[in-house]
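debug: dumping io for the single-chain case to check the tokenizer round-trip. Nothing else runs in this session.
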Amino acid sequence: MKKFNEEQYLKNYPDVAAAVERGQFKNGEEHFNLFRKLEGRFDDKKNVLSSKAITKRSSLASHNNMWQWISKNFNKKDINVLEIGSRSVASNAIRNKSIPLCNYTGFDVIAGPNVDVVGDAHRLSDYFKKDSFDLIFSFAVFEHIAMPWLLSAEIANLLKPNGCTAHETHFSFSEHELPWHFFQFNNNALEVLFCKELGFKLIDSGLDNPIDGVFSSSASSYLAGKKVEHLYCHSSIISKMTNKRAFKNFDWISVADRLKEESMYPSESGKKWL
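debug: decoded output
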């Protein structure tokens, strides 16, 4: 039986390495034994690069856990928190219960309940000073941002050293709030937006809330009735700002160059839908 490659496994999955460091798992092998089948994890580089379908599931950043993580770490006096997309359309109950003690600022493109500052999220630095916040978070916002890479850079600028950012958006969901619905994200996309080249260290990311999907009878004849696999409603990320100096010399092409070194588009690309 092949010996488990602990070093390679933790290198393959920084989120697991972080969980081991926090004491959630004794080592990478424990995580591997518990979640390898559910999450499609591998302890060798070849399978990670060539696997057809690896769906990474969130833990701390999951739909049911994100608010708990925020409350545990930021419900404190003298902690500055910014919520992007803060306008209340239903209730403030979760926020009021989770972080009543912090210095909270609500930011939205439209004035309304729970909004302290109205503006364009692409230009956060026009409204706030750099290094202002210990936490910047959002729920169901990034899909409505026309150029999300601009927003992630703005967040990097506004976070204090060792500040955190947490975001939940959609991977598979109905079109909504048109015409301002621009993107759907998986966790890979969010990890690109909140990358180490911008100064971020990944804490957790992944997909959550599985969806059963089927092409409708009105779809093209060769698709009608076919099942669509690997659908999840939510995609989320939690990252920590660990290198403020990175922002000064940041260039998006450096992220693309690193991705080409670390991974590759699979040579066997699976089902051909089109």
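debug: round-trip ok. Confidence is low (pLDDT under 50) at residues 49-53.
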